[in-house]
Amino acid sequence: MTGALEAVRSRRSWSKVTDAAPTHAELLTLVSAAGRVADHSSMRPWRLIELRGTDRDRLGRAINKATGDKGSSSKPLRAPLLIAVVASYRKSDKVPRWEQEAVASGVAHVLSLLLDEAGWGVIWRTGLYTRSKAVAKAHGLVGDEELLGWLYVGGKPPRARLGRRKGVDARHHISRMPREASIPEPKRAGKAKKKKAKRAE
Ligand SMILES: Cc1cc2nc3c(=O)[nH]c(=O)nc-3n(C[C@H](O)[C@H](O)[C@H](O)COP(=O)(O)O)c2cc1C
């Protein structure tokens, strides 16, 4: 069994974490490793923003502004460190936006795995306000950038109950291509209908 297989199998999300958090220097090592995900044309279409201390209150205020509530949401206070994941789309004729978003998402997944393996509790969170103007402004998003949510990071609480995770039955998620004969041909059917309609005119 490889280290990666074991790390992925044993990871879980931690919705409750303690006040301990990795330092900026620790993050640099993990982020640099996570940045090694497959990346079409090596465009690095992502960046991360660390939110610590009162940054989290600023996010709380932006969330409430976005949702039309007064004051500050306490949601960001659920962890001592939030890592905002930003897709920073680059101009390209070759690599469309969806591919660039896939890269940013890959970085977030790998980073959360590395944090988990390093002993930190992580959960990826979003909300309907994730792509609101107020939240984008608070993060200083510029140009063509979009948030993919936040990795909430903290210490794994001691004596936490290790909730069981359902395994994934791979057989339901991997198959071969359908047999050609079984593929409906909507285009051809559409063309035939049009021809028929023309003839009837
Ligand atoms: C893009 C994305 C957004 C998510 N947003 C939330 C969220 O807002 N709240 C939440 O409880 N879980 C959210 N999750 C799911 C958790 O991160 C976590 O994967 C889920 O609770 C399952 O737990 P597990 O990772 O231990 O299997 C999100 C996951 C992804 C990938």
Key phrases:
globular, alpha+beta, binds flavin mononucleotide, NADH Oxidase, 4-stranded antiparallel sheet, 201 residues
Description:
- The chain starts with a helix and ends with a helix.
- It is globular, with a radius of gyration of 22 Å.
- Strands 1-2-4-3 form a 4-stranded antiparallel β-sheet, with helices on one face.
- It is 37% helix and 16% strand.
- Helix 2 (24-34) packs across helix 4 (97-117).
- With 201 residues, it is α+β, with helices and mostly antiparallel strands.
- The site of flavin mononucleotide has 9 residues, from strand 3.
Task: Summarize the entry for a quick read.
It contains 6 helices and 4 strands, in the order ααβαβαβαβα.
Shape: globular
Number of helices in the DSSP assignment: 6
Count the E strands: 4
Low-pLDDT residue spans: none
Domain unit count: 1
Beta percentage is: 15-25%
Give me the Rg, rounded.
22 Å
Arithmetic mean pLDDT: 93
CATH H-level homologous superfamily name: NADH Oxidase
Q: How is the CATH topology named?
A: NADH Oxidase
**What's the helix-strand series?**
HHEHEHEHEH
CATH architecture: 3-Layer(aba) Sandwich
CATH class: Alpha Beta
How would the blueprint of this fold be written?
Blueprint: H1 3-10, H2 24-34, E1 46-52, H3 55-67, E2 81-88, H4 97-117, E3 120-125, H5 133-138, E4 145-155, H6 186-200
Antiparallel strand pairs: 1-2, 2-4, 3-4
Helix pairs in contact: 2-4
The protein binds flavin mononucleotide.
Residues 12-13, 123-127, 149, 165 line the site of flavin mononucleotide.
